[in-house]
Structure formats: C-alpha cells, structure tokens
UniProtKB/TrEMBL annotation:
Pfam family, one: ADH_zinc_N
Species: Mesobacillus zeae
SMART domains per UniProt: PKS_ER
Name of the protein this chain belongs to: Zinc-binding alcohol dehydrogenase family protein
Enoyl reductase (ER) domain segment(s): 10-319
InterPro entries: ADH-like_C, ADH-like_N, ER, GroES-like_sf, NAD(P)-bd_dom_sf
Length: 321
C-alpha cells in the first residue's frame, strides 16, 4: 500500500511517498481504509525531531476518517462502518490499524472531509474547555492562536457555552475577521494582547487563558491573568518552553494546568469516547464546524506541511488518501 514515511528528521523534504507493508491487526484492533487524514502542528514538530527520538522508518499523523475494513474477533465494529480514529502507528497511509477504544462511529450525515477535520482538535478543545478550564458564562477568556485548528474550535465552543467575553490572539491581524466570525469578541496580536486584556477587563485580567504557544507568550499571559485565574497549557508551537515562578501563582491564588491529548490517548483512552460522542453531536447539528483551509493528495504531503509551517491558513489542512 501507499504511505508517507521518513527515515530522518528534517524539513518537509524528508517525507517520502512510497510503498510499505500492509498492516496487520491484533486483539481489540480494527483495520481502517483511510479516506482523509489531517496535518496537525504536532506532526511538524515530530518531523523535525522536536518531540523526542524517532523510531525510523517513521510515519506521522494523529487521526483519520475512513471505513472499517477488518475487525478482530468479538469486535464492537463491523466491516463497512464509517469512523474517525486515532491510529497506533501513524495516519499518513491508505490503511491504518487502531485500538477499538480509539475508534468512534460517525453518522452517514457527516462527510468524511468534515469528520477528518475534527478528531484531534475538537476532542482536545472540548476537554480543555469543560474539564480542565471549567469555563463559566461570566468569564473573560483568552484563546491563543485563535485561527488555528484548536483555536478555531475553542472559540466556537466558548461562544456556544455562552462565555461572556472571548479574546483571541493571532500572529497577523489579516485573520481578525475570520476569528470574529467564529465568535470572538476581541482579536489582537501577541504583541498587544496583554494591554488589550487589561483594558477589556478594567485591569482585573482574564479568568482563563488557553496557551498552545508557550515561550514568551506564557510569561505575558501571566501578566494579564486575574486573581484566582487559570492558565491552561496545551502546547508549545513556538518551539520554546514557557516559564513561570512559584511567586506568580501562590499569592495570587492562580493556577496552571496542563493537558495533552496524546498522553490521555495512551494512558486513559476510555476518557475519549464520551467526549467524541458530544463533539460529533455538535458537528451533526451544525452547531460547530471547522473550515477546511485546503485539501492535498497524500503524494503532496510535503506541500501540506509547508503550508502548516507558514501559518498562512485558517482552520484545518486535510490530506485525501
């Protein structure tokens, strides 16, 4: 079968479209014929070698939408069912294997393209908004990288939850209208968000800040986080770790929470099914959506990675297999 692998870390040129061995399923696993996968920023970091050592040949990709092709004995799934899934050994391939706990059925009314845009960013966003951030309607919240996949979903979910004030940050104000269309009240850049947040809150600061950027943005976020506020750390797309001091939190009664969907998939996969069900209901009811910036063929994966790295897009970048 066709797949994309890499044999070394590096730029997009290390991604190779080639033939690989057909995967085999084990106990409690299913084989999925992939219709679409997506490019997440975690793929970029892993390709570069920013996420630890690589076991080469390495296949990237976190999620897929497709059709069940083969099941193991006593499976809860049947051949031909439409699903989204988190495969166990990468997603950039015609066929992938996934543990049944990380496979979720989708209704016929949801297109594969829309379904493929949602697994990683939507499930992550729902969990950090409700379970980790525990947002309330009177809150003022800040969503960093608001035009990206996670940011786009967080803005919509927060708006749907009735959050009083949603402030989104972007690298370029060309994305301001897009983020406001999703539901943000205020959109600003990373250079100005501290002043904007303090102005919008009469110097009290934001109740919750969702930080997927880290680096300098983390320190700046603490400059405009309210007393008893929560900084939710969900990534470091800047490539740099954010830092803080214990004195930043104890006397102000603020707290910092971290969350990783990858860690949760590995250690507590059973937490995902209820969330996937809720998110799918929202998509089917068209209460939320994820704009697809562009769809590439699997053979053009390098071009897709370059687009994601450029950050010159809004929503999700998909791969048609």
């Amino acid at each position: 079968m066709k797949a994309v692998i890499q044999n070394e870390f590096g730029d997009a040129s290390v991604l190779t479209y080639t033939d690989v061995a057909f995967p085999k399923i084990g106990k409690n696993e299913v084989l999925i014929k992939v219709a679409y996968t997506s490019v997440n920023y975690a793929d970029i970091k892993k390709r570069r070698g920013n996420k630890g050592k690589g076991n080469f040949p390495l296949m990237l990709g976190l999620d897929v939408a497709g059709t069940i092709e083969e099941v193991s004995p006593k499976s809860n799934f049947s051949k031909g069912e439409r699903v989204i899934a988190f495969p166990k050994d990468g997603a950039y391939a015609e066929y992938v294997v996934a543990n049944e706990q990380l496979v979720f059925k989708i209704p016929d009314s949801l297109s594969f393209e829309q379904a493929a845009s949602m697994p990683t960013v939507s499930i992550l966003s729902y969990m950090v908004l409700y379970e980790i951030g525990q947002v309330q309607k009177p809150d003022t919240i800040v969503i960093h990288s608001a035009a990206g996949g996670v940011g786009s979903m967080l803005v919509q979910l927060a708006k749907l939850a009735g959050v009083q004030k949603i402030i989104g940050t972007v690298g370029n104000l060309d994305k301001e209208n897009y983020v406001k269309t999703l539901g943000a009240n205020v959109v600003c850049t990373y250079d100005t968000f501290v002043e904007e947040v303090l102005k919008e809150t009469n110097n009290f600061g934001a109740n919750i800040i969702f930080d997927s950027v880290a680096g300098e943005v983390t320190g700046k976020s603490l400059e405009c986080l309210a007393l008893y506020g929560t900084l939710v750390q969900i990534g470091n797309s800047s490539g740099k770790a954010g830092t803080f001091k214990t004195s930043d939190v104890h006397s102000s009664c603020r707290n910092i929470k971290g969350f990783s969907l990858g860690t949760t998939r590995k250690h507590y996969p059973e937490r995902l099914a209820p969330v996937a069900e809720k998110v799918l209901e929202l998509f089917v009811a068209k209460k939320v959506t994820l704009p697809v910036a562009r769809v590439f063929n699997l053979s053009d994966i390098a071009l897709a990675h370059k687009l994601v790295e450029s950050r010159n897009y809004e929503g999700k970048v998909l791969i048609e297999v």
